[in-house]
Amino acid sequence: xxxxxxxxxxxxxxxxxxxxxxxxxxxxxxxxxxxxxxxxxxxxxxxxxxxxxxxxxxxxxxxxxxxxxxxxxxxxxxxxxxxxxxxxxxxxxxxxxxxxxxxxxxxxxxxxxxxxxxxxxxxxxxxxxxxxxxxxxxxxxxxxxxxxxxxxxxxxxxxxxxxxxxxxxxxxxxxxxxxxxxxxxxxxxxxxxxxxxxxxxxxxxxxxxxxxxxxxxxxxxxxxxxxxxxxxxxxxxxxxxxxxxxxxxxxxxxxxxxxxxxxxxxxxxxxxxxxxxxxxx
Length: 281
What we know:
There is one protein chain. The chain is an alpha/beta fold and about 280 residues long. It has 2 domains: about 170 residues, NAD(P)-binding Rossmann-like Domain (Rossmann fold); about 100 residues. Helices cover about 50% and strands about 15% of the residues. The chain contains 12 helices and 7 strands. A 7-stranded mixed sheet has the order 2-1-3-4-5-6-7. β6, α7 and β7 form a beta-alpha-beta unit. α8 packs antiparallel against α9.
């Protein structure tokens, strides 16, 4: 069997991955440094952790389910001990793109990240419709990048990625730089920020007297159709003349000229991932 060493197995993300790896063709060795994490893993899955050196011995792949700021530091402590040809799988592009990974030319570095279940989907079961993060019941897409290593290693790493994030639809192949553009720039710098702005605007409508549930229902319902039109999912849909006029008037009020260039500039993306790995004091 293909052996996987899962580091951080008792953490929030590691626990999700541990559950999805159960009952697969992979022989998984679980590592967790904290007693609390080991107890959590045992209670949720019945799995016992083992010592890190034993887990890494003859591992075909090492999955780094540890915080972004720790990936480079943790990997540096054992990368020299890995067998040549071992695949190290990271779950986010921040540390790889920021240059945090130690140099070891004869091991493979692979990066993968979930897209999370799409807003517009065909899920019908309640558990799937409420699996907002993904990796439990709802289908999702993922992105993958072979940062270094032979092309022949890509298939195994993608298989691991599909397993830990299952159920998976498409696995989109990108570069590490492109993954950093997707996150943090696109999904967090823009997507998360605008999501919170939508919440703040809804709260302002409530503050001005609109009943809370009416404001929430109105916003979420309109987002459903507005996003479907903006992303051309609702092919026949068009913004009304009134909506187009409101958009034209609102853009200069809400957005500063050149904001896309500032957010997606390569130096801005690099600074963002560096701040993630080494948060400013």
